[in-house]
């Protein structure tokens, strides 16, 4: 959960702060990671939609994608400049994990999503521009707070992730295209895309487990644990 959070933690554990890399280098690598996961996300969204009999409409997809698209275009650079450090990412992980724990205590039982649900998920994905806040985790939190059941929240989160991830890939690719550091990362970027595809494909069969009781609680506790380890690593660095 949260690619930026895991990148920051892994970099710190390896003795190098990910935030210290040149901006173009980070963008190039993140483009590759997102691009690698898109085919798996799309396949999962189609599978979940077919199983439920509730395919997303263009209007629904617009509501889930537009807030993040606008926020990303206007605020991505200020957010990256001010909130990309290990400490801020760790605090965001902990806060997002706590929010998911609270949201999963809601007694949501609706299986059909409404326009307001799609807009709430879209706004949650805009908040997820903050490094350390996972888009999928934010979407699951919003769905549960809106009263959706776990299966419906999962379906909406996965479906909403596809257009937003594609948009993030396009935006970061455009901004990294002219950077020398971005071009220099071509080999690591290809390796990162392959690893992202492989890990997403391996995790995809486990998606159904998120429909079980207490599944989101486990994710929330994991997020808090990752944030806590990141804070310790930041202080030790």
Q: What level of helicity do the residues show?
A: over 70%
Class derived from helix and strand content:
mainly alpha
Radius of gyration: 17 Å
The main β sheet shows up as: none
Regions with pLDDT < 50 over 5+ consecutive residues? none
Could you report the average pLDDT, rounded to the nearest whole number?
Answer: 77
What sequence of helices (H) and strands (E) makes up the elements?
HHHHHHHHHH
Strand content: under 5%
- Strand runs, count: 0
Describe the protein.
The chain is an all-alpha fold and 237 residues long. The protein has one domain. Helix content is 76%, strand content 0%. It is built from ten helices and no strands. The longest helix has 30 residues, at 23-52. It starts with a helix and ends with a helix. The mean pLDDT is 77.
What is the strand and helix layout of this fold?
Elements lengths: L2 H11 L9 H30 L5 H26 L2 H18 L11 H13 L7 H11 L4 H27 L3 H5 L1 H18 L11 H22 L1
Helix pairs in contact: 1-4, 1-10, 2-7, 2-9, 3-5, 3-7, 4-6, 4-10, 5-6, 5-7, 6-7
Structure characteristics:
mainly alpha; 76% helix; 237 residues
Summarize the structure.
The protein is mainly alpha-helical and 237 residues long. It has one domain. 76% of the residues lie in helices and 0% in strands.
